[in-house]
Specification:
With about 80 residues, this protein is mainly alpha-helical. The protein is about 60% helix and about 0% strand. Helix 2 crosses helix 3 (about 35-50). It is globular, with a radius of gyration of 16 Å.
């Protein structure tokens, strides 16, 4: 998604890189490391900062996705209820 948005001209790679560096720098004060989470947070920071999406929209979408049952995206039934 990040590469597609970059290629579409939504943001520049230096903008994203700066946001990712900021997230990783903030992590150094925290005890948990999750590179994917920092990457995702940096992408969200850039998109919110540019007004492409609001923080509220991101939160609402994350809540919607979190409510989906496990296996929701399987094309085949593997015995899920």
């Amino acid at each position: 998604m990040a590469v597609t948005l970059y290629e579409a001209g939504v943001f520049t790679w230096p903008q994203f890189r700066a946001a990712l560096i900021a997230r990783i720098s903030a992590w150094e004060k925290d005890e948990h490391w999750n590179y994917y989470q920092h990457w995702l947070d940096a992408l969200q920071d850039v998109l919110v900062g540019l007004g492409t999406v609001s923080a509220e929209e991101i939160t609402a979408r994350a809540r919607t996705l979190a409510r989906r049952h496990p296996g929701h995206d399987h094309l085949n039934d593997h015995g899920h209820p």
